[in-house]
Specification:
This protein is of the alpha+beta class and 147 residues long. It contains two helices and eight strands; from the N terminus they run H-E-E-E-E-E-E-E-E-H.
């Protein structure tokens, strides 16, 4: 009987400690490995890209094939704010507002919509360099509509 009680106590403790880990894995939004509140809109196999629009700000997150967050960025009206998350957060290059679409963009297109282009390029040290750029070419359209 004592042995059964010890096993039951062990199971209860194991569940108590794994509960927070399971809760983190089922997270649904920005920063999640597998966000359930956004569709994968990646344009390149091996990456997963997710986009959200909240209060006029677009958030784009790129994960690798295993679900590890690589980088995330917030953007509105052609301005970008790198978010401090992901394995490659420090390897994010933001092209200045007004840079013509396609200028200085290297690598493969991971995400693109009418206002945002995100590319990834492998570096010699094994890291990925991400570039985020505005793709809107009509200044009036870019500043009056949030895509």
């Amino acid at each position: 009987m004592k042995r059964i009680a010890q096993k039951a106590l062990f199971v209860v403790m194991a569940l108590a400690f794994t509960g927070p880990a399971l809760a983190q894995q089922s997270s649904t939004g920005l920063g999640s490995a597998w966000p359930t509140d956004a569709h994968d809109v990646s344009r390149m196999p091996g990456f997963h890209a997710y986009a959200w629009v909240k209060s006029g700000v677009k958030y784009v997150q790129v994960n690798d094939a295993a679900g590890n967050v690589l980088m995330a960025v917030a953007t509105a009206n052609g301005a970008f704010l790198p978010l401090p998350m992901g394995r490659n957060a420090k390897n994010l290059k933001i092209l200045p507002k007004g840079t013509p679409a396609g200028t200085s963009v290297v690598g493969v297109t991971v995400y693109q919509d009418p206002s945002v282009l995100i590319t990834a390029a492998p570096q010699s040290n094994g890291a990925l360099l991400f570039t985020a750029a505005a793709t809107c070419t009509n200044p009036v359209e870019c500043t009056t509509h949030v895509n």
